[in-house]
Known about the structure:
By secondary structure, this protein is an alpha+beta fold. It folds into two domains: 1-34; 43-160, Jelly Rolls (Sandwich). The chain is built from three helices and nine strands, in the order αββαββββββαβ. Strands 6-5-8-3-2-1-9 form a seven-stranded mixed β-sheet. The protein is globular and about 35 Å long.
Amino acid sequence: MNAWRLPALVGLVGIVLAAAVWLAAGRHPGLSPVPAQTEPQRLTNLTITHAGQRHLFHVEIARTGPEQERGLGYRDGLAPGSGMLFPFARPRPAAFWMEDTRMPLDMIFIGAHHRVTGIAARAQPGDRQLHASPGPVIAVLEIAGGQAAALHVAPGDMVGW
Length: 161
């Protein structure tokens, strides 16, 4: 074997092995990664309790930075009883805007004791105005615009997921 062929062959084998490991890990851009057994669920049921009445929502969870940045942007609609939850690792002030959103949304700010602390009602699509929490929150729930008022959701209501 020529002297130059051995290093080239070793390099090629290394590239093939690295690609195989990368594909097996589900990191190929064309493949969906296989969720690990310990990965948290991306959908959950959530309830808002107002005056003893429980309202059930089936929500997506935006956990990562990119998921939270995209939020409900670029979507044309949101079914009643659905939404998106933006949980935070610890209580912090939060502010959202509607720049890439195509539908009105209600933003429900959830404090450390799982109580509604504020609502930004009917935030308008494409608006760059910041809708800020009234203080530190552990999560923000986005639902269809007007749904919070229709259900009489108010500060102090309990939120569970």
